[in-house]
Description:
Layout: E1 4-8, H1 20-28, E2 31-34, H2 37-46, E3 53-55, H3 61-73, E4 78-81, H4 93-103, E5 106-110, H5 115-123, E6 130-134, H6 140-152, E7 156-161, H7 166-177, E8 181-186, E9 194-199, H8 200-209, E10 216-220, H9 225-237, H10 241-250, H11 255-266, H12 270-278
Parallel strand pairs: 1-4, 1-5, 2-3, 2-4, 6-7
Antiparallel strand pairs: 7-10, 8-9, 8-10
Helix pairs in contact: 3-4, 7-8, 10-11, 11-12
Amino acid sequence: MNGTLYLCATPIGNLGDITERVLNTLREADMIACEDTRGSLKLLSHFDIHTPMTSYHEFNKYDKAVTIIGMLKEGKDVALITDAGTPVISDPGEVLVRMCHEEGISVTSLPGPCACITALSLSGISGRRFCFEGFLPHDKKERSFVLSELKRESRTMILYEAPHHLKATLAVLYETLGDRELAVCRELTKRFEEVVPTTLEAAVRYYEENEPRGEYVLVLAGRDPEEAAAEERQKYEELTIEEHVKRYEDQGLDHKAAMKQAAQDRGVPKREIYNALHKT
Length: 280
């Protein structure tokens, strides 16, 4: 009988945030797979946990996953933890979870701390609709693609950033997205926790004169839907009505449906499109 992979959320700062269920699982598991054995040893020592550990990180996530799958097939239970927070969120654990599903091995999650949700709840920015971007890609081409998507994003956006990259990240976000409402969250749940409601422009200016310290979560307001709709209408208005309707007809819509869609795009009654086309 196969064992079970337990995804154990660990504190992002304050050790008191760990759950009793996670502590019991870490004690009872046959093995703990962790991103950084040295960092995790401090956590385990604090709670007097002596379960064997194995490293599982970005640079061995495929080979080590095979090894861990082998242990699970032998009936052993494995607890997966990340450096801090919930495994799989900006973390190589997703590879192991996917392989477990492919092999028919049971996976369960033990919920707890997660930096992105903690920051969102503290930000004061809308949490009804949001997306998590994590760290921006280092590859220039991929980074450019992600930024172009974020420029159009109307949901609240959550990003992670290290202190030595924060200035550059704020600058490129401001350059790409323009000024936006922003909450800069630092050292969450720790002694010097700080949440600063601000804007992108103000944050860029502030960190030009102040050195970033600690780990950051940026909660950024999405694009104003009305502004996006106005820009979209302006783009369509650059077309003549004839060109606009023909574009939809070329896509396979009949004349009536093409007029209706063009009217919707331009924010005008369909009768106005009909009159313009038929000069009545």
